[in-house]
Structure formats: structure tokens, C-alpha cells
Amino acid sequence: MSPEDKSKEPVDWAVYIKKTWIKWSILALIAVFLLLFKAIVSIILLTLASALLAIYFYGFTGLLQRYLHLPAKVSLIVSVTLNLLLLVGFFWFAGSRLESQITQLSDTLPSTIQHAQSQLQQSALGSKVLDYINSSGTGGKTSAFVRHFFSSSFGALSDLYLIILITMFFVASPMMYKRGVVHLLPETAKDKGDELLDQLGDVLKKWIKGQIIGFFFIAVFTGLGLWALGLPLVFTLALIAGFLNFVPNFGPIIAVIPATLLGLMQGPTTALLTFGLYTLVQVIQSAVTQPIIQKRMISMPPVLTVVAQVAMGALTGFWGVLLATPIVAIGMTLVQELYVKKQTYHKYPLN
């Protein structure tokens, strides 16, 4: 049949309308999925944060059982109560001081940034850097990124409320949720799934342990160093440095900026010493606590961690950057246990 004859055939409008509806329905489903994807990822991240907090409570419970020989339920109650009392006590004794220093820091930083700009304008290279930033709009892009970085889908208060609420459920009956996940697996994979969940919990427990050790190490030594240099707002800057240790790669860079700017107010020498202090503390921390973090924990390529942080940060903001490392650890553990270990390497053996 020639093309001219085909063009003269009658059109089946019912089939045409059906195909059109199918195409538009698929496009609509894709659009709805993309709109809901960010919210779904945010909910998963909050659930992961709750699971990490519950793992911390049970890890502390294990310490109480080991050293005080308390029953399991009593140790869990003591673990949760003691940590809550420590948190309340911290804000009771140091909350007002922390609040005043944060307010002072937020009031001081604008003038500090202006002072830094005036210092840069005194050199030819600094002037070129400022001209590039102003002409390219990098400053506005950076501000927008920072606002998105420290934002989340539901707001800080609602995020914390959801994390605490889900953590309470996880702490109250963790085995119920574990059994629920295992029941979703095929019969032949239930034993492997149960073993894999225990292994993931062990990996995350070691990550939390290393991060807590790193937090105290960096906060204490950074605070002592800033106090020796005579910088103001030592308490707040030390806590910022400690907390941002939970965000590898980018956290130390963010932490050093306000301290260096405050040091610049006292002179270029103080700013350089402050920058050197943060660098030295990070180097020592990497040599002392990093082996504890990586001990018996899956090795994560730095490039993969950075890419995950950038991608998760662009998608969900602060929570994505904060939880990118445990997400990578979970993903690599699953790939290694479910795929890599089942492969037979003849040319490139693992050992």
C-alpha cells in the first residue's frame, strides 16, 4: 500500500483519544512523582536521623549494662533520662551565655565582613577578587545557597519534633520495626535481611561513636586555642566547630570562616593564627579520632562522600548534607553484602 493510500484511511478516533490520554497520564504521573520526591526524601532523612538517635540511646544503654550491670529495661530508662537531663542542664547553665554570644556574633559579623572587604581592597589581588564577586553575582548565589543549606522542608521546629517523636517509637519497640522490615522480604532472604540490619546498626553505631569523640576533641581544643589567642565568643565558636564536625569536608570550612573574620578584626596576624589553629586541630583530629571512626567500618571513598553531600544538600538542604555520610555508609554496606561478596574475582581478587 502506497503512502497516499495510507493517508486516505479513516482515523480511528477512539484509539487516538485513548493513546493521547495514556501519554498525558504518564506525563502527569511523572510530574506528581517529581513534586513528591523531595518531600519523600526529606521524610526518609528525618526517619534516618531518628534511627541514629535511637541507636545512640541503645549504645549508651549498652555501656550502662556493661559497667553498671543493670537490667536492659532499667539501663534504657536511665540512658534516655540521663541524656535528657544532661541536655536540659546544658541549656540551663550555658543557654543564656550561648544565646548572648550567638546574638553578639550575628551582630558583629556584618561589620567584620565590611572590615575584611576594606582589608582586601588595599591589595591589587584583593580588589580583583571583590570585583569578580560583585560582577558575577557570586555573593548573591552564595547567600541563596547558605539559606537553602540551613533550611529544610518542614522548618527546624517541626523537623526536631518529628525526629524526637519517631525516636521515641524506635526506642520503645525497635524489634517491632525490625521484624516489620524483615517480614517484607521474601522467605529465602529473611535470614540475610535480619543479619544485614544488625550489620547496618553496627556500622551506624561506630559512626556515631567516632563523631561524638570528634565533637568533644574539636570543641575542647578549638576553645582552648581561641582562648589563648584572646578572641571573643570562644564558647560559641568552639561549639560551632564541634557540631560542624558532623559534616565532613564542608563543616570545617564553614566553621573557620567566622573565627577568621573575628581574628581579622584584631589584625592579619591574629587571623592567620586562627586559621592555622583550626587547620592544626583538624589535622590532629584526623590522625587521632579518624581511625576510631573507620575502625571495622566500611571504607568510604572521599569523592563519593563529597558528591553525596553536594547532591543531598542541593536537594534537601542541611539535613541532606548532615546525613550524607551515613547514607553513603548504608549504601556501600548494602552493595558490598548483596552484590560484591557474591561476585567471583579471578583476575582481580579482593585480597
Automatic annotation (TrEMBL):
What InterPro entries does the database record attribute to this sequence? AI-2E-like
Task: Name the membrane topology term.
Answer: Multi-pass membrane protein
Query: GO:BP terms for this protein?
Result: transmembrane transport
Q: Where in the cell is it found?
A: Membrane
What Pfam families has UniProt attached to this entry?
A: AI-2E_transport
Q: Which UniProt keywords apply?
A: Membrane, Transmembrane, Transmembrane helix
Q: Which superkingdom heads the taxonomic lineage of this protein's source?
A: Bacteria
Q: What is its main location?
A: membrane
Q: Where are the transmembrane segments?
A: 21-37, 43-64, 76-95, 160-177, 215-240, 246-264, 271-293, 313-335
Q: Mind naming one GO cellular-component term on file for this protein?
A: membrane
- Family indicated by similarity: Belongs to the autoinducer-2 exporter (AI-2E) (TC 2.A.86) family.
Can you name this protein?
Answer: AI-2E family transporter
Natural source organism = Mucilaginibacter robiniae
